[in-house]
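Notebook entry, structure prediction.
Reason for the run: the old model in the group folder had no record of what sequence produced it. Starting over properly, with the input documented here first.
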Amino acid sequence: SGLSYIKHNHIIVALISIGVTSGLFASSLPTVLPVFATDTLSGDIDTYSSLLLSNGIGGIAGALILASLVGLRSSPAVQIISGLGSGIGFVALSTTGWYEAAIVIYTLTGVSSVIFGTINNTLLQSIVDDSYRGRVMSIHQIGWGASAIGGLIVGTLAEIYSVSVALALCGMITAITVGALSVFVSKMLSNKNMVN
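New structure, fully documented this time:
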């Protein structure tokens, strides 16, 4: 019944698809960061640690920004911007071999990723009927957990081509797919509000 409920609600399908895409092609990208730190940035464990720290700091900043400035009414637009920012951030990261630039880019990617994930979850929670909430959110979490499979995809791309190609390709897929689905969700929610 949960799957049937989801299937008949295009907004929920789009929001869950956004989660799956992000899980496969964005959340899995940190699996190749150790190689990026050593091969592309010519660094070591400290370089890798700094990248992780910068992303964490960005995540905290994103959460604070979201808590203080963004209301649910503006969430669809914020999801579009932050989703694009998350994907574009990885594309930008793939083009740099400069340590300081990588730190700044990965910090901003952390900001975008946390805002994006939180908005996606909030939008879904706000439109799901209470009687289906547990079932829908369980399926939604499976989508976000797709990073385990995504790690295999990213690792294979990095092995066949390079870490930079893997980052760029997955970042582009994330930005295009998530951006398009987020625009669809925004339009559907606007039409729904107009009808209501």
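Summary: The two ends are 26 Å apart (CA to CA).
The old model has been moved to the deprecated folder.
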